[in-house]
Design goal:
Elements lengths: L8 H10 L2 E6 L3 E6 L2 H8 L4 E2 L6 H4 L10 H5 L8 H12 L4 H6 L1 H21 L3 E3 H6 L1 H11 L6 H12 L5 H24 L5 H7 L10 H32 L1 H8 L5 H11 L5 E7 L3 E3 L2 E3 L5 E4 H5 L2 H4 L29 H18 L4 E2 L21 E3 L3
Parallel strand pairs: 2-8
Antiparallel strand pairs: 1-2, 3-5, 4-10, 5-8, 6-7, 9-10
């Protein structure tokens, strides 16, 4: 895997041509595997002999993974994404109260108001920049970050730093010292948030998690609390940020598809689903581990191997989406079959919220600025330096023609 990241699709196509499952070399010469094919990934994500807990990561348990390994946080952070069985169900039940259909729907007025306010700021930024502004910085980032931090009760003063630290934690090209420092500071910031909510509880998820007790009286452990906050902030804004960014890029470079929405032949929800399939906001997500030698897609994945879930590859798998899988088409009838929000027990709990945020963002953005377009050729947009997230670092747009 190229730790510098970049656009994954050409490499994905080459790998898929060789098979649905492939061996990969992770940073630090760590041997792993990636599941790329749609059907193979769907089977793998829900297989009963696949675990998330790093106690099943053979090389880690053998002491072969250094502390500064850039992907170590994904394996060792304590929370829903690294828990199995009873622990996973316990943690998920605590979080589920914040993401019920009713609770998410109650957020709609706030999301729509925040979207409108951010569009004002985007227009101000463009006015100061000769009509051009970075949509990612001024709009696609502060919307999901504002919503998830409001849910968690995180003060606005922490938002920018939490985003910077999230970027470092999901980066795959940084050195051991940087990786260790980013994780340490993230824990410090979130510990301060937890302390503030302990001292002054509010109507937020962090306060609820601190107060939560299971029927047996067990409180969420301190490590689980910080791990849950970390995962919720990273997953709750990075993925939606990439989703909005990728959708705007797709519509600007496929004006015929934008015209379909404007004519009523398709919906903004269709745009979101096709973007999730065609340009998944997460390219390769770490890690899952077979608890026994496991044959998936005709290939044996040895017990204890760290496995990447190849969401961006599965989204363009021609065996699942047809020979035109590489084409952005919002009228595609199989778009909802994508796996970009997961599958099985670890399906993304925040999926309804992400969909609502992205739909509101796109509808208001293109209604207010119908001639919005990229200010530079798409090929010049700098990509993220990671093979985990899939998007660009900046998105300069011209709001009016």
């Amino acid at each position: 895997m190229d730790p510098a990241g970049g656009c994954p699709h050409a490499a994905n196509a080459r790998l898929l041509a060789q098979g649905a499952v492939t061996p990969v070399i992770l940073p630090g010469e760590v041997e792993g595997m990636a599941v790329l094919g749609h059907d193979a990934l769907k089977e793998f994500l829900s297989h009963p002999d696949v675990a998330k807990n790093a106690q099943h990561f053979a090389a880690l348990q053998a002491g072969e993974i250094p502390d500064g390994w850039p992907l170590k946080t994904f394996a060792t952070v304590q929370g829903m994404t690294t828990a199995d069985g009873v622990d996973h169900r316990r943690l998920r039940s605590l979080m589920s109260k914040a993401f019920t259909a009713r609770r998410v729907e109650e957020l709609r007025p706030r999301i729509e108001a925040l979207t409108a306010s951010l569009l004002d700021e985007l227009e101000e930024a463009a006015a100061a920049g000769d009509g051009v502004a970075d949509l990612r910085t001024h709009f696609a980032l502060p919307l999901p970050m504002g919503v998830i931090c409001e849910l968690l009760g995180v003060d606005a003063g922490h938002h920018d730093r939490l985003h910077e630290l999230s970027n470092q934690i999901v980066a795959t090209d940084i050195g051991p010292e940087e990786a260790t420092a980013a994780n340490r500071e993230m824990v410090e910031v979130l510990s301060a948030v937890a302390a503030a909510r302990t001292e002054s509880p509010g109507d937020d998820l962090t306060s609820a998690l601190i107060a939560a007790r299971e029927e047996n009286g067990d409180r969420l452990s301190p490590h689980e609390l910080i791990g849950t906050l970390m995962l919720t902030i990273i997953a709750g804004h990075e993925t939606t940020l990439n989703l909005i960014t990728n959708a705007v890029r797709a519509l600007c470079t496929h004006r015929d598809q934008l015209a379909l929405v404007r004519s009523g032949s398709a919906s903004w929800a269709d745009v979101v689903e096709e973007t999730l399939r065609w340009d998944s906001p997460v390219s390769y997500f770490p890690f899952r581990y077979p608890t026994r030698d496991l044959r998936i897609g005709g290939t044996v994945i040895p017990k204890g191997t760290p496995v990447l879930a190849g969401y961006s590859a599965a989204g363009r798998d021609t065996s699942a989406h047809g020979p035109d899988a590489g084409r952005f088409d919002i009228t595609r009838t199989d778009a909802a079959r994508h796996l970009s929000l997961g599958h099985g027990a670890h399906y993304c709990m925040g999926a309804p919220l992400a969909r609502m945020e992205a739909t509101a963002a796109l509808e208001q953005l293109f209604t207010r600025f119908p001639d919005l377009d990229l200010a530079v050729p798409e090929s010049e947009l700098p990509r993220h330096a990671t093979f985990v997230g899939n998007s660009v670092q900046r998105l300069p747009v011209r709001l009016r023609g």
